[in-house]
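Okay, any thoughts on this one?
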Amino acid sequence: MPSLTEGCVVTGFNPVRLRGHLRAASNSNATAQARGRAYEDALTYLFGSLPGCTTRRNSLNKFESEEIDIIVANHRFDDGLKMLPPIFLVECKNWSAPVDSSTISIFLQKIENRACRVGILVAASGVTGDAENLKSAHHQASLALARGIILILLTSHDLRRLESPDEFVSLLHGRFLDVYAAGTFVTPNS
């Protein structure tokens, strides 16, 4: 069983460091595995920069049938992710194409299998379908909400704009509320 990420609380968030991870994640000369690892590095760095958050990466279940990219333990500090639960899962998809509904179904199953109530899908190129008509991936997010699971969507566009941990907290809290208001996950374009 992997241990909690060493030094997971970042004492000085640096947007240049975040962008370095994101550049490595988009390096067309790197293997898909290396790009995926760099994307997970970026998200681990971001969550580790938040007050009260610790992370564990690439956790495989006992049966070796499901891997969780990042598990976040959220101690709910006042200046951290106060609105989010104590434990949630993060799935990183550094794909050139939008994430489809079947992939989201698999992530939702992982969330349910661990009795979590929140999952954050970080999809580099967004997701299929549209929020207005609840098609494709958006339909899966709306079905999850009906079952009591909040699915928050972030994209590479969201990550590249971040300048501080406070902005990341605001983004996550805003998307959390948006899910309740819209009935599905929300992106700036939806």
User: Anything to note?
Assistant: Confidence is low (pLDDT under 50) at residues 1-10. Strands lie at 53-60, 67-74, 87-93, 118-123, 150-154.
